[in-house]
Amino acid sequence: MSYKDTLELFDELVAMGTPEHQARAQAKQLGAVTDFLVTMKNEVNNKLDKIDRDLIWMRVIGGAMTLAFLSSWFK
User: Fold this and answer.
1) Tens-place pLDDT, residues 6-61
2) Three-state SS at 74
3) Where are the alpha helices (DSSP H) in 1-75?
4) Are 27 and 10 in contact (CB under 8 A)?
5) Exposure pattern of 25-48 as b/e (b: 16+ CB <10 Å)?
6) Is there a contact between 38 and 46 (Cβ–Cβ < 8 Å)?
């Protein structure tokens, strides 16, 4: 994904003859979409980190259960 700065987009639109108010609205929308994508990426990363931490505990619990099963089986 190529990133285009909103000010750069505004300048390009104005240079191509787009009215200033319309260019400002389009650049503002691009900024809002970019902010939304960054926010969503951060939220997904946070949730994946939490899942990773939870999976570590699940592995520890599974290992303890396996060890308990094997130790009671070989008594």
Assistant:
1) 888 899 999 999 999 999 999 899 888 888 999 999 999 999 999 988 888 888 99
2) coil
3) 6-15, 20-73
4) yes
5) eebeebeeeeeeeeeeeeeeeeee
6) no
| 18 CB-near residues (< 8 Å, 6+ apart) | 26
- Where do we find the tokens 């003859």? 17
Name the one residue in this structure whose structure tokens are 């939870």. 54
At 29, the amino acid letter reads Q
Considering the entire predicted model, what is its pTM? 0.57
**What is the chain's length?**
75
Q: What are phi and psi of 45, to 5 degrees?
A: -60, -40
pLDDT, residue 1, reads: 44
